[in-house]
Every structure is written in structure tokens, then in C-alpha cells.
Amino acid sequence: MQRRELLKCVSVGVCGGVAGCTSESGETPTETARTFERHVSVAAVDQASGDPPVRFDVSVSDVAVTSETTAFLSISTTNTDGTDWRIQTPFYKGESEDASEPGVLLYSLDAADHPPRGYEPSCYVDPDPSQESISYTGEGLPTHELAPGETATDEYILVNDPTDAGCFPAGEYHFESSPALYDKNDDWVESVDLSWGFDITIAAAVGSR
């Protein structure tokens, strides 16, 4: 992948840090429903290498994670070519890439097993792991049919990883995906590699430090 752009961090707090690790802005034993708060921002977006016919962009539509709500992200796919294409959703579901560190999970709201929109983080009460593993449903990936210049947007929900200690640990998290591309005859275009990725930053709100 070729990193094409670096986005300015817009969250309250400091960007950066080792992926998935806790810090002074992470969990403390004194956090309560009133004080628990995280802010989520996009740190960087990688575009596929070469000259791909589509472009991906990531934004955070709801930035705050509290005891009553979580953050939502949007990923847009734009056909920058002069040809009609069909493309798989740019990311579907899964954990951040460094699975050896405490992490977070991201689900497309098109996924059959995505948590409800009204998901309420309760991990601040007990940040110890509550599950040994995570099971995902195995349905096929949805696709978008894009005419030249057309954009499709997918919405995602961010949830805590119940297999790791912590509750939305502060840090930077990397997600990767390799969506398949199909031509107008619905043939898979194997010669085009759309592998790409993006980083998000989770930071504790200033008042909770």
C-alpha cells in the first residue's frame, strides 16, 4: 500500500502512541459513567498502490465514546475511472491489525452480526476480558455498483474488544482490507489490487485525565 495522505487529528487529546496500548489517558480505577469518555478521530488513510479506479476516504460521524454511546465511522468509495465498476464494501468487520495488543472492533452496519446502534459500553465498570474469543457470521460481502464519478458510503460502529483487557484503550489502531473489484460483466478483476488501510486514534477526553 502507498500512503497518499495524512489527516490532521481532530479529537480532543494527543494523537499518536503505540497501537492498542494504554497510557496515562487510558483506563483508571476511578472512571465512572459520568467521567468515562473517549474521542475518536481519523489519523491516516492509505490508498491502494498503483493507479486504482476507486478512492477510499474515512470520516468519523460521531466522535464520542461514553457510557451511553459509541463512535460511528463512515467509509466512502468513489469511482474515479471512466468505467462502471462493482466493488465489495471497503471494510466489513474485524479487529484492529495488531491483535496481540488491547484493541477495538469495527463492524459495518450491513453485517448480520453488528452490535445494535444503541450499543452502550459497559466495559468501564470492569475492564477485564469478558470473552475468550469472538465469532463472526460468514455471510458474503455486500457490493456497490458505481458509475463513473459515483460515490457509495458505508457506516460502521466501533465497539470494545471483549477478549482484551481495557475499555477502548487510548492509542492508534490500524485496519486493513482488500476488497474485490468486478467489471461490467461481473468478472473479478484479479490484476487490480485494492489493498488499503486506515488508522484511527482513540484519546481520553481532557476532563477524564
Can you tell me about this structure?
With 209 residues, the protein is an all-beta fold. It is built from no helices and 13 strands. Strands 1, 2, 4, 11 and 13 form a five-stranded antiparallel β-sheet that branches.
Structural topology:
Layout: E1 2-6, E2 37-47, E3 54-62, E4 64-66, E5 72-79, E6 85-88, E7 93-95, E8 104-108, E9 143-146, E10 151-160, E11 171-177, E12 181-182, E13 196-204
Antiparallel strand pairs: 1-2, 2-4, 2-13, 3-5, 5-10, 6-9, 6-12, 7-8, 8-10, 11-13
What does this entry show, briefly?
This protein is mainly beta and 209 residues long. It is built from no helices and 13 strands. The protein has one domain.
Proportion in helices = under 10%
The share of residues in extended strands comes to: 35-45%
Give the number of helices: 0
Which outline best applies? elongated
What keyword list fits this structure?
209 residues; five-stranded antiparallel β-sheet; DUF8130 domain-containing protein; elongated; DUF8130; mainly beta
